Amino acid sequence: MSLHVSIAPHVHSKDSTATIMRDVLIALLPTTLVGVYCFGLNAALLCVLGVAAAVLSEYAYQKLTGQKVRINDLSAAVTGLLLALNLPGNAPWWMPVVGSFFAIVLVKQLFGGIGDNFMNPALTARGVLLASWPVKMTAWYLPTFCKGVDAVSTATVLGGYEASAMDMFLGFIPGTIGEVSKVAILIGFAYMLLRKVISWRIPVVMMASFALCAALFGMEQDMVTSLLSGGILFGAVFMATDYTTCPMSPVGQYIYAVGCGVIIAVIRKWGSYAEGVTYGILIMNIVTPLIDKYVKIPVYGQEKAKKEAKANA
Amino acid sequence: METVSCGNVLLFLVSCVLSNNFIFSRFLGCCPFLGVSSKVETAAGMGMAVTFVMGLASLFTSLVYQYVLFPLGLTYLSTISFILIIASLVQFVEMFLKKSSPALYKSLGIYLPLITTNCAVLGVATINVSAQYDILSSVLNGVFSALGFLLAIVLMAGVRERLETSHIPEAFKGFPIGLFTAGLMAVAFMGFSGLV
Amino acid sequence: MRNKPKLSSVFLNGIITENPTFRLVLGICPTIAVTSGLINAIGMGAAATFVLVGSNFVISLLRNVIPDKVRIPCFIVVICTFVTLVQMLLQAFIPSLYASLGMFIPLIVVNCIILARAEAFASKNGPVASAVDGLGMGIGFTLAISIIAIVRELLGTGCIAGIPIFGAGYDPMLITILAPGGFMVFGLTLGVANIIMKRSENKKAKEAK
To answer: Would residue A10 count as lying in a domain?
Structure first.
């Protein structure tokens, strides 16, 4: 069986889309499991519905428009799971369905399908859900086992909830399903590095630039809390590294990652949202085409040559 | 005193460029935004021409409003006088550039006639009046809002250059996908709300 | 006049064949700005229609008097007069609509639909035909923005013209009445309109065979 591979041209391994996507799904497994452990059956339901709706949307769209059905490349499943992991654990069941539909049909397929979208589908859908149902999307509650009773609604750490560094590291804090457990995200990160699915560049630079800005701006939280709270680690590892929506050249990736970190810090410090990860990455998604246009090693060479020619003339 | 006002100018800039972007949250100037955004270079040229005209238009319209229309009780004539000021301003700028700076004229000239009917220019003049800005604030509002337009149109052009190679369905090519793209970009810009 | 265009076809031209919003994609800014609710859309449509009919009529009457070189400024002055008239009428009689349409009333002046019709039709045709053209274009514009407004208001609030349709169980998708939703719904409606037009054209072509 030959699968059509149409990811951006910077993929340097011979892996097909399906292999890469399968590795991403495996990398997401720890964080999904911890999320389900923390937030119970509803979180599991959201993940299943998110994946199912995404795959079904992709299948239906490709059937209806007479294209070859490519749900086997698993990219829709990854999008659906990422979207579900970006929801609060007690979100209503229809939210991942609406979100996955939006992500697959309107953000990905409308622009031509895999490799053609310019914004991260899961993240854009999350932005749309957040703008549409702001109350439901920010209704946090504690992991069920923390207080012995279920569904204690509370603020996130960024909203003022106090948690120890260990709790934040392990994931015993309120938040979205995927973002709470830093240790699970790091395991996934390590796996993806090992399998060479992503490079360390974007996540590490993004976290570093965010930390630097946090120190400069003087956040309400201390440094450890800033780094371990909210969705920044999840965003840096799983969202900002999306092949089609980040720059191709290494230099471009540095610029992109620094931009993400700075914008997130600015929104956390001064914006009306407590968390800015979604928007930081989305804005840099939009800037990516410009980065790719101007930051290419061959173009640099040409410009240099031009300048030299001018100087000589 | 000095530092406070400097801080205010910075806040004003952030508000006009990011939080209350002319395109993404006030939907002014959409026609050139969609019409002249297929190439980054031309989009930048258009943006700069708009910045130039919007700054000047803010200055002259608010001068006329504050020293002529308002004292004489002729505020109902503001729309008509603003549009005439803008039209003649554009004409004048075009002639002036042609004579004094042919290089700049070459790069901005072709966009100038289009600007008369750019609703962002008349829009900013109207906002200046309704927000009761003094002359300096009006000019700043004009220039900063136009910089927001410049940012939006350049980003849009970058995205559209990339979309050229995308397999967009036939019925959605052109304006439909352009509008939808602008909508998705506006989602991202929502993150800047409340910065000021 | 060599051959006078038939009034009925002039009228329908603006509504379907050359619908200013769906076919010519003119006047994007007001379309997005006023379509968060049906009432606003109809109000804006009516105001624009009034200006279109009036300015087309007057410009057509003056078409042989206006020197060709300064025709655009002259058109703008005529259009602006009617816009100011609308502005005053609304302010006096429907202040609530005046307040919700806000700055987009004076901006009718720079709505490209109106200048485009003055240039393309009124400056070449008789006053009656021009007024009918203005009416058709105005109604076409109103219909188009009403469709967009219905979609946005229904999804964004569960209501149409303020009247609840979906009932209390519906959790409104707020984004459709916000700025991003305006762009998105307009873009999608435009794409769907393209698909429908294409289908009907194909059908006609088949029938012709």
So the answer is: no
Q: Does any domain span residue C1?
A: no
The answer to whether residue C203 is domain-embedded is yes
Measured N-to-C along each axis, helices C179-208 and C127-157 cross at an angle, to the nearest 10 degrees, of 120
Q: Which residues of A163-183 are buried (b: 16+ CB within 10 A; e: fewer)?
A: beeebbbbbbbbbbbbbbbbe
**C155 φ, ψ (degrees, to nearest 5):** -70, -35
Beta bridge mates, A154: A140
One pLDDT digit (tens) per residue for chain A, 313 residues: 334 444 444 444 445 889 999 999 999 999 999 999 988 899 999 999 999 999 999 999 999 998 999 888 999 999 999 999 999 988 999 999 999 999 999 999 999 998 899 999 999 999 999 999 999 998 888 887 665 555 667 788 888 788 888 888 988 888 999 999 999 999 999 999 999 999 999 999 999 999 999 999 988 888 888 899 889 999 999 999 998 999 999 999 999 999 999 999 999 999 888 889 999 999 999 999 999 999 875 544 555 555 555 555 5
Q: Are C180 and C152 within 8 A, CB to CB?
A: no
Please check whether residue C184 lies inside any domain of the structure.
yes
Q: Report d(CA A187, CA A193) in Å as an integer.
A: 10
Number of domains forming the structure of chain A: 1
Domain of residue A273, residue span = 17-294
The reply to whether A96 falls in a domain is: yes
Does the structure show a pLDDT above 50 at B2?
no
Is residue A2 a part of any domain in this protein? no
Distance from CA of C175 to the nearest CA of A (A): 5
Closest among C13, C35, C10, C7 to C185, alpha carbons compared: C35
Disruptive mutation site among A4, A107, A118 for chain B (greatest number of B CBs within 10 Å)? A118
Contact residues, chain B, for A112 at CB < 8 Å: 166-168
- Which residues of C fall within a CB distance of 8 Å from A98? 173
Check B162 against A289: CB less than 8 A apart. yes
Asked if B27 and C73 come within 8 Å (Cβ–Cβ), the reply is: no
Residue from A132, A136, A137, A283 to probe the interface with C (highest C Cβ count within 10 Å) = A132
Name the CA dihedral angle for B104, B29, B142, B49, rounded to a multiple of 10 degrees.
0
Contact C173 A106 (CB under 8 A): no
Q: Do B190 and A131 touch (CB under 8 A)?
A: yes
**Which other chains touch chain B, taking contact as 3+ CB pairs less than 8 Å apart?**
A, C
Q: What is the domain extent for residue C61?
A: 7-208
Got the DSSP string for B68-130?
Answer: IITTTT-GGGHHHHHHHHHHHHHHHHHHHHHHH-HHHHHHHGGGHHHHTT-HHHHHHHHHHHH
ipTM: 0.90
Shortest alpha-carbon distance between residue C187 and chain A (Å)? 11
